[in-house]
Protein 1
Amino acid sequence: MRSNEAPPSQANLAWDVLLEVDDDGRGPLHSRLRRSLLTAIRAGRLAPGTALSPSRKLATDLGCSRWVVTEAYAQLIAEGYLAGRAGSGTRVSWADRPVSTVLVPPTSALRTPRFDLTPGLPDLRAFPRQQWASTIRVEVQRVAFTDLAYQAPGGHPRLRRTLADYLQRVRGAAAGADDLTVCTGITDGIMQVCRALAAAGITAVAVEDPVWRRLGRAAASAGVTPVSLPVDQHGLRAADLAANPDVRAVIVAPAHQFPTGVVLEPGRRAALLEWARRVDGVILEDDYDAEFCYDRRPVATVQGMDPSRVVLLGSVSKTLSPALAIGWIVAPPRWTAALRASSAPTAGPPTLDQLAFATFIDTGSLDRHLRSCRSRYRNRRDALVQAIRAELPECRLSGIAAGLHVLLSLPDGVDAAAVTAEAASRGVRVANLDRYRVLPVPAEPGLVLGYGNLADHAVGEAVRALARAVERVRAGSTSTGRVVAAAPQPATGLPLVHRYRHRPLAHMSGGARDPAPRAPLGPGPRVPPT
Ligand SMILES: Cc1ncc(COP(=O)(O)O)c(C=O)c1O
């Protein structure tokens, strides 16, 4: 199909394009140039609306007369592949499908809910644009030209020094610049460390359950099998580690478990370290959002208690934005050496961003930003808790003291998948707690509500809409027409190809001990993973 509707624009210049003009002597040069342009248009190298090189310039580039080019252009104009307009040059006007002037929003935009309470994001409206922009400008101006070469493995030494000091000061970590490797985030860090573990013969890693499932997938993709280990009100059940001798590594979020919000209690911390020493194992400490504590003191890292057994992982995903893709790994020398040896020269975030982040910390901008975030999040959390207590008095809240999300337990018998679907139909996106569960154990229905990226003014209305969804499901019918009792559970929301099954620890494998096992993976509404 041909179209002449391609919108002209002064952008979209394609003065440099790969043109393979046959020199096989088949036909005159202008015909061979025409064929070559046609091939580029049909292959999509010259997209609809693209401005071609002016005839004089292309003739110079090709070393032919200008007439050859104007002749080739004229033929393609006559055939409808090109359009020549005064003032806008010669542009591609052919598309293999009609070019619409109606802007069609992308599918994801069509599905954007009015209120998005899925956890995982900080307040993106509060990103310190001005400070970041001016810091980047300063770094671009003062960066040494040698720093514009390929990065040294491990990240820029200035950021490594700054981060090591920062993590000692703020997180009680035991870190020197040499122990620190800059990466693009915790997920990336886990992948890198697991690759090193796999190379050293460690084949299985314990992962908390419930959990942010991408961490287990990252380990699996690095060749280490994730094995689920349950979390209770005291955190990860460290004693259960002994049941699986293959497991010599564990991924744990001691300061603020996701999604339960529990803190790993001191006895369990000690047990975890004792286990790691006994099996010559490694603890991968996921320190993803420890900066945000409201009603309790921040908890220092386990890494600070024994830096020889713990790899500490952190990132700016919850403090600034995941778009910056800056993270860090603090590891014992043995693992740092393995990371440095394996990382590609350009594996980290851009050097200029690393330098800007170092300056952002050194000048106190990060501390100031975090102070203002903490007070904003605390107020928003208060508003959310208040609204839930007023609108959903029969639901229990937990994990409210820290972080950017809370856990809402639904009344017994209320199906969380049905509530999630009903809420979505009312424009409220929430996460079913089942989506983070792996082991088939009976558990009370619940929702995970993230408030980091929720606009303050939206809190009341979002909770009211959620309360109406719960009411509707309790009443036994939903606006989506689902019969609640038959609702599939749980909904993981993950595309099938991305699912993996954790291998539960032997003595936890459910079955006989679990009278009513819940199917761990099942169909459900597709929700973007958080
Ligand atoms: C428990 C947990 N760990 C880590 C991360 C973040 O990882 P990254 O630094 O790769 O963005 C998240 C993000 O939502 C998370 O929920």
Protein 2
Amino acid sequence: MTSLMNHQDPPHDQIFETPFEDPSEMQSEPLRRVQVLLITCVDFRLRSEVSAYMESRGLIGHYDEITLPGASLGVMNEVYPHWQKAFLEQFRLLKKIHHFDHVLFMDHRDCGMYKLVLGEDHLISREVEYSCHLSQMIAIKEHLFQHMPDLTFEGVIMELDGTVTSLLL
Ligand SMILES: [Zn+2]
């Protein structure tokens, strides 16, 4: 691996255009430190609510965000299994350069990706919908994060009015 990341302040476009096999091998000085990696759904209806929630926790300016359809379901599903590789590459890169120690998965109600993968039946009741999101969070924690003891994991679900309920700590 060449010395791209040895620069104290490399140009933004160089960081993201340079290919690498394993970001953990990069020799880097921390460019910046954030507290949290937030994983959210792309849903256009909730962008300002997501920001408002993070502001309510005092985290504006202190988190990275990966956004993909379905949030937790986008990270691990059978329709688009290759998304997981892309997620993990981005995850490792951001961990390397920004050193977050808390991972926050934020799903939301009435999610189009959940409908696509699980079908409309998962919306038969709020309780069933909730349990589907909870099961997904548990699966991700167990399969992807069980060997990362330096990270804390949190899962929440947002209502369409922006209210947030804890799923998993
Ligand atoms: Zn969604």
